[in-house]
Write a structure and sequence with these properties.
This protein has about 250 residues and is α+β, with helices and mostly antiparallel strands. It has a domain of about 160 residues. Helix content is about 35%, strand content about 25%. A hairpin with a 5-residue loop joins strand 1 and strand 2. Helix 3 crosses helix 4 and helix 5 crosses helix 6. It is globular, with a radius of gyration of 20 Å. The chain starts with 11 loop residues before the first strand and ends in a 7-residue tail after the last strand. The N terminus is likely disordered.
Length: about 250
């Protein structure tokens, strides 16, 4: 039996419950040390010319667009997790009001179509993983079995796919092997904003979604990540997250 290795990730509450310490979300705590998140490290991967051109086009609106996209992605991830946990999700409330943005609901339905079409065996969802060798940690969307092969899948709702996504799944595969002593056979991006028009024989895809595998080997993507991590460590020699502390109750003295 494999025992899942846990480490501190969420808030710390004082003994008297009067103060909460909230760790920096970019770091995970592991054996008294702090490991940067995989996605934080990958921010140091070059964004490329298309991203630079996009920044020029949107100008000061960039931060708002990125924040909105992140919020949409988070909501879709939460809906997928709820679905996998057996919860019923409804587009309309009992009174007939719309509960979700149409685009978000459609992306969620694409995930449901993938799941109902290929019937994966769910191994883990939103699982915390780490690598003591790479000194990083992260949260992987899905570990599943499809046709007796063990997969790492990362759900993406972005308009385009970036090379760093392949590096991300490679590191998840490495972390999973360290944590569970099982080798990942395949890895891919479950892209819920694909331009695919429908199913295709011998392909995992449908209308508006597809699974995209890296054109490089696992080792090649892992080595690319190691290079990025070297740059990250150079610019961040002291892995020390910031903390936010606040009281849990207040009362004015009268």
């Amino acid at each position: 039996m494999i025992i899942k290795k846990q480490y501190q990730r969420v808030l710390q509450i004082s003994d008297d419950a009067k103060q909460i310490t909230l760790p920096d979300s970019r770091y995970y705590r592991r054996n008294g040390e702090y490991y940067p998140s995989i996605t934080y490290v990958l921010q140091y991967y070059p964004k490329g010319k298309y991203f630079e051109d996009w920044l020029k086009q949107v100008g000061n609106n960039a931060d708002h667009i990125v924040k909105k996209a992140a919020e949409e992605g988070t909501q879709v991830h939460e809906m997928c997790e709820a679905y996998l946990n057996g919860e019923e999700l409804n587009f309309l409330s009992p009174s007939g009001d719309i509960k979700y943005d149409v685009n978000i609901w459609q992306m969620f339905l694409r995930f449901v179509e993938f799941w109902e079409t290929f019937n994966p065996v769910l191994i883990e969802t939103e699982v915390h993983l780490f690598s003591d060798e790479l000194r990083v940690a992260g949260t992987c969307d899905l570990i599943v079995e499809i046709n007796d092969e063990l997969w790492v899948l990362d759900i993406k709702t972005s308009n385009n796919l970036h090379t760093s996504y392949d590096l991300q799944t490679a590191v998840y595969g490495k972390c999973y092997e360290e944590c569970f002593e099982k080798q990942i056979a395949r890895r891919g991006i479950l892209w819920l904003k694909s331009a695919k028009r429908g199913p295709k024989k011998d392909k995992m895809q449908g209308k508006g979604w597809e699974i995209v595998e890296s054109s490089r080997t696992h080792e090649e993507d892992l080595n690319l990540f190691k290079n990025v991590k070297t740059l990250f460590d150079l610019e961040n020699p002291n892995h020390s997250p910031s903390f936010t502390e606040f009281r849990t109750s207040v009362k004015r003295e009268v």
